[in-house]
Inverse folding.
């Protein structure tokens, strides 16, 4: 489903370092949707990993999580975005990272990012 080829930077530079936790959440969220939808839905990726040049070309923020492989822009055909958000949130809860997943719904796609900085800070606080 999600692999290096479909997550890599669109400019052909080869950058494809994508966070495994975000990948797991996406795949599980899709599995959940497929478990209740009568169709075998699939993910259409708009953007995932971006090198600095590609990020600038598409007008991304200078501190974009796409630069670290911690964000993805996507949609799922025939499934309303509100439903996708619901199942992605369930998937994040399953992996116990729901407090660190941010989802922004755009007109025809959604942006999902894993705030790994907040997550690492929380992990360090829990160790103390």
């Amino acid at each position: 489903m999600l692999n290096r080829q479909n997550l890599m930077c669109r400019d052909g530079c080869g950058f494809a370092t994508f966070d495994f936790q975000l990948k797991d959440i996406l795949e599980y969220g899709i599995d959940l949707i497929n478990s209740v939808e009568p169709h075998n839905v699939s993910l259409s990726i708009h953007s995932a990993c971006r090198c600095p040049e590609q990020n600038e070309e598409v007008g991304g923020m200078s501190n974009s999580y796409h630069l670290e492989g911690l964000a993805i822009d996507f949609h799922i055909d025939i499934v309303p975005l509100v439903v996708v958000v619901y199942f992605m949130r369930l998937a994040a809860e399953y992996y116990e990272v729901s407090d660190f997943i941010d989802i922004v719904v755009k007109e025809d796609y959604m942006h999902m990012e894993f705030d790994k900085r907040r997550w690492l800070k929380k992990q360090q606080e829990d160790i103390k």
